[in-house]
Write a structure and sequence with these properties.
Elements: E1 4-6, H1 25-43, E2 49-51, H2 61-68, E3 70-73, E4 79-86, H3 93-102, E5 108-113, H4 115-118, E6 124-126, H5 132-135, H6 143-162, E7 168-174, H7 184-196, E8 202-205, H8 214-218, E9 224-228, H9 229-232, H10 240-245, E10 249-255, H11 265-279, E11 284-289, H12 298-320
Helix pairs in contact: 1-3, 1-12, 6-7, 11-12
């Protein structure tokens, strides 16, 4: 195997769109091409194992899916629940078609919002028109709502990953609420509904301090955990054997996205090699920024891409032996 480099999801839109705003898919096309072009330039003919993303310039990930699902109304967060939540039409297909064409068929990653994230109170809100089943839920759990969202997102996952013409090699589910105290049993159920629908390996992205919940993450049936390396090192009992026992590989977040400072190549290389020693190079699937970059400065975003590509090249031999 060799180390994969991929972005966590979003990328700053085309320079003509400043600051980022809601875009129709037609308006977003130049920004998708821009995101792909920036990634291609970072690789620029070198043997980096890059997994491409579309950059999702249309909107934040919850809004992209909220606008596409039946049962939700609104133009921005929070969306109103007006009827039972269902999947009736493709949501991210066109975005991925544009990216696929722009990268000339290279490997692509699709992104699905997690149901926990989508059901948060600042993402969607219940109204008197919402189905009784949702309104009768425990307001803290929103169980029926979450399971219906998960089933709808599973439909989208099935549709995207069954489409072999796009070369989608991985699907990523984003669930940041897991580090903010979300119910872990319900989260596992919701994530697995989506993950089971995928025909390709599934990455679970959770940002923030995962150290108190790492054991719960290991129990979720996905292939790869994308977590921040700085918090991972605080999980004392995480061993190569434990990762193997749970069938998990790590996608290590190694670049902060909420600050303009970027760790040096030497620093990143050192951190990564230390993690390879600790968790086994064979258990490290790839490296990523810590989170999406929609709101980053364009030049800083671009520097992060270059740094990831350079570090991957520097440590490649170490990971190829794994
Ligand atoms: Zn994140």
């Amino acid at each position: 195997m060799s180390l994969i480099v991929t972005l966590t999801g979003s990328y700053p839109p085309h320079p003509d769109i400043d600051p980022p705003r809601s875009l129709t898919i037609e308006e977003a096309e130049p920004s998708i091409r821009f995101a792909v072009e920036q990634q291609q330039q970072a690789v620029s003919g070198r043997p980096v194992n890059w997994l491409y993303v579309s950059g999702q310039p249309q909107d934040d990930i919850v809004s992209i899916y909220a606008k596409g699902l039946d049962g939700l109304k609104g133009e921005h967060l929070p969306f109103k629940v007006v009827s039972e939540i269902k999947h009736t039409t493709p949501i991210a297909l066109r975005e991925l078609e544009i990216a696929h064409q722009a990268i000339d068929g290279k490997p692509l990653k699709a992104h699905i919002t997690g149901a926990m994230l989508m059901a948060e109170h600042n993402s969607i809100e219940l109204t008197e028109n919402s189905p009784v089943l949702y309104r009768n839920d425990d307001p803290d759990l929103r169980r029926h709502l979450i399971i219906d969202i998960a089933n709808a997102l599973a439909e989208e996952t099935r549709l995207l990953t069954n489409n072999s013409s796009l070369n989608i090699q991985y699907v990523q589910i984003d669930e940041p609420p897991l580090t903010a105290g979300a119910d872990s049993t319900l989260a596992k159920e919701a994530i697995e509904i989506i993950a089971k629908a995928s025909k390709v390996p599934v990455i679970l992205h959770v940002c923030g301090d995962i150290s108190p919940i790492m054991n719960q993450l290991l129990d979720i049936q996905v292939d790869i955990l994308n977590v921040e390396g700085q918090h991972l090192t605080r999980v004392r009992d995480l061993t190569p054997q434990l990762l193997r026992d749970h069938g998990k590989k790590l996608a290590i977040g190694c670049l902060p996205v909420n600050a303009n400072e970027i760790p040096t190549e030497r620093q990143l290389e050192r951190d990564l090699l230390r993690m390879a020693d600790r968790y086994g190079a064979e258990n490290i699937w790839g490296i990523t920024p810590n989170c999406g970059m929609r709101w980053s400065d364009r030049d800083v975003a671009r520097l992060r891409l270059d740094r990831l590509a350079n570090v991957a090249l520097k440590v490649a031999s170490r990971f190829e032996q794994a």
